[in-house]
Amino acid sequence: MFLHEIPKGSKIEVTLNSGKKFFMTFHHIDGAYAYCTLDDGDSDNVVHLGVMTELEKTGDFYIIKK
């Protein structure tokens, strides 16, 4: 499944190379990228993922496929 196919408001879990995990919320598509925000309490932390980013549904959230 690709990022542009998931519902607005979906949660995406991200794992860094260090092993640290965090969540972000998908808001909308903006051209070739998606507007997402980190769920860290600071709404100014925006992440732009490519709309063709492959995701896998795991429970009630998605993970980025490697």
Top keywords for this entry?
66 residues, mainly beta, 6-stranded mixed sheet, 6 strands
Structure, explained:
A hairpin with a 7-residue loop joins strand 3 (33-38) and strand 4. Strands 4-3-2-1-6-5 form a six-stranded mixed β-sheet, with no helix packed on it. By secondary structure, it is an all-beta fold. It contains no helices and six strands. 12% of the residues are buried. The two termini are 13 Å apart. It is globular, with a radius of gyration of 11 Å. It has one domain.
The biggest beta sheet is recorded as: 6 strands, mixed
> Termini distance?
13 Å
Low-confidence stretches: none
Secondary structure class reads: mainly beta
Portion in helices: under 10%
Architecture blueprint of SSEs:
Layout: E1 11-15, E2 21-30, E3 33-38, E4 46-50, E5 55-58, E6 61-64
Parallel strand pairs: 1-6
Antiparallel strand pairs: 1-2, 2-3, 3-4, 5-6
In short:
The protein has strands at 11-15, 21-30, 33-38, 46-50, 55-58, 61-64.
